[in-house]
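seq as requested:
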Amino acid sequence: MPSDSIARNRLAARLDAAVRDHDAPLPTPVFVVDLDAFDANAADLVERAAGKPVRVASKSLRVPALIRRALSHQGFRGILAYTLAEALWLEEKVLGDDGDIVVAYPTVDRAALASLVASPRAASRITLMIDAVAHLDAVDAVRASTAVPVRVAIDIDAGLIVGGRHVGPKRSPLYDAPDVVALARTVIDRPGFQLAGVMTYEGQVAGVPDAVPHQRARSLVVRRLKDASVSQLRARRAAIADALREVTEVGFWNAGGSGSLETSTADPVVTELSAGSGLLVPALFDHYQAFDPRPAAFFGLPVTRRPSPEIATVHGGGFIASGTAANDRLPVPWAPAGLHLTGVEGAGEVQTPLTGHPAALLQIGDLVWFRPAKSGEPFEHATTAHLVSGDRIVDSVPTYRGHGLAF
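struct tokens:
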């Protein structure tokens, strides 16, 4: 039996024991996080960051206790949130007395903006993301006074331009120094705002596997595009940074993600990095040259049917990841090793049939452990995450949903 299969079967035995020996029966699906793997991943991210601080990307966790745990590791500092409403809650309940929060995406949430400008403490510790004057207008529309300054950061497109085409996430309309400087001048000249930093998120480097088995040619193309992107972006960052220095001092320059820490930290312009998925390592992060995956998040589904000797059907399972609809967005039946989704039903809303040699050995009531394709999103389907160390559940903690939060 290959070593990977042995490790996965041992994982199944360990997680089964943790659930079986828990004080009370657990409802399914059972969402668990392996703290041993989580902490090892945190240490690996810090090592790869090579001395630059790492912000915790909250969207990739969505469990307050895990955000706190990541921040407790030396080398992590601050949170990268995905909504302002979330950032306000985290600032009050999770952040503590130190650190700050950067909201990674622009907001036009009037209620959240009104709460921000009404709280000097929150406004001093939360930075909004902007890429247009309209985002400043949204803030001014909810306040009668500029007495409480609002911190903002400029999001600059970090995509690769090759052959006249844009490769990478479609984020900011700001690409070159003149447009960035123009917006920076507007922020500086506008009462009630403080330019706190800059973001350049190179998703085409951080979020794309580049060592996929049986896809050697494609992986080679991806690696070449990544190299070209890193080189082009480094030159463009330097030019923008030089232009901004003529206008103001920028407090921070955020970049990177779990898949690009080495190249991002090597850029002297970058002052801090962000990472989140690398703490839990979902299935989409399996095939990177930069690091070896150490899966930490799983959900267990019970076998409820045996429609044939070769098939075991589990209850539920349709936790499909966001993004372009494709097979890589499906959860992966992980442990015991050797199970596969069927091409007809895939991961279903109410049932998921599984094939492969272990299916014949599974009995009704047995648990099958899945890995999500993406990090964070599955916890929107759960109120509780069970934290496992060794073969014991050492804590059960609420997710965002368990706190009654909807961000």
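The longest strand covers residues 297-308.
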